[in-house]
Design goal:
One of its GO terms (molecular function) is ABC-type transporter activity. By secondary structure, this protein is mainly alpha-helical. Helix content is 68%, strand content 0%.
Length: 284
């Protein structure tokens, strides 16, 4: 008489983890668009700032124009790259840092920690939401720039290839840094007060609102430590004429340095987000 012994095989958890993460992208995206505060201060903020700068400074003529007034680019064209970079930072860092801190504070993460949802699935849902909203934001911003503000967009395929990799690197990096930064606020109530000033200061010193080379050298060097400066520089290489590269800190677009800096911050953000993430605060 033969006996058949059933041997239990280890289950592959990756498909389940991936499926859970992908299923959360739609859920997280719906929550994002149901929050008026989030929409105003992350999604529509670059639109508002681009409109303000274009309306306020267009009367002074083109930026980088010749002495006779010819050449240069319009104010809207000059500020568009910075607004795209700021949108990436807001969608990732500010949005996720405030959102996750709030979920820790109200007990949402504690409840999720008692479910089969793994941190990886949770990360996939959050990062996927950032990607979806960042793509929508960038697409609408370019549409508004072209149709409403009459800003000329690049036609060269290589320019759009650069846009694509700077955008992908920037969004992923911002998302990981947002997850990591969410560990800093002590509560959901204090999250905006902690995160928003950091994001705002980075925008001012990174060439988003001010011409980068007009800043003091020490401030330029400080900004070069952080990813937003490189995101804005990469976007300027896409939307501004080659002659504007001379106005950068090194006199060139330095795209290899842009890729290297964003790559370093992406890895650092990944490590920090995984090390600092907890379903509940350690001091809770």
């Amino acid at each position: 008489m033969s006996v058949t012994v059933a041997v239990a095989r280890p289950q592959n958890k990756v498909p389940g983890t991936l499926a859970l993460g992908l299923s959360r992208i739609g859920y997280e995206t719906r929550l994002y668009f149901r929050s008026p505060d989030t929409l105003l201060f992350t999604f529509f903020f670059p639109f508002i700032m681009l409109g303000i700068f274009t309306a306020a400074f267009s009367s002074s003529g083109n930026i980088g124009a010749n002495p006779d007034g010819t050449g240069g680019v319009s104010v809207g064209t000059y500020y568009l790259p910075g607004m795209l970079a700021a949108g990436m930072l807001l969608s990732g860092v500010q949005n996720l840092a405030v959102d996750i801190a709030g979920e820790k504070s109200d007990g949402t993460l504690k409840r999720l920690g008692g479910t089969p949802l793994s941190p990886l699935s949770y990360f996939l849902g959050k990062i996927g939401q950032v990607f979806v909203t960042a793509i929508l934001q960038a697409g609408l911003l370019l549409l508004v720039a072209r149709l409403v503000l009459d800003i000329a967009l690049p036609t060269e395929p290589e320019k759009w290839a650069t846009f694509a990799w700077v955008f992908v690197f920037g969004v992923i990096t911002s998302a990981f840094l947002g997850i990591a930064l969410s560990a800093v606020p002590r509560s959901g109530r204090s999250a905006t007060a902690v995160v928003a000033p950091v994001v705002l200061v980075l925008q001012f010193i990174s060439g988003v609102y001010l011409q980068f080379t007009t800043l003091p050298e020490w401030m330029q060097n400080l900004a070069s430590i952080f990813p937003l400066k490189w995101m804005a520089q990469g976007m300027r290489s896409v939307f501004l004429p080659e002659s504007f590269a001379a106005a950068e800190q090194s006199g060139t677009w330095d795209l290899p340095w842009v890729a290297g800096a964003l790559g370093i911050w992406l890895v650092l953000g990944l490590v920090l987000s995984r090390v600092t993430f907890r379903w509940i605060r350690r001091d809770a």
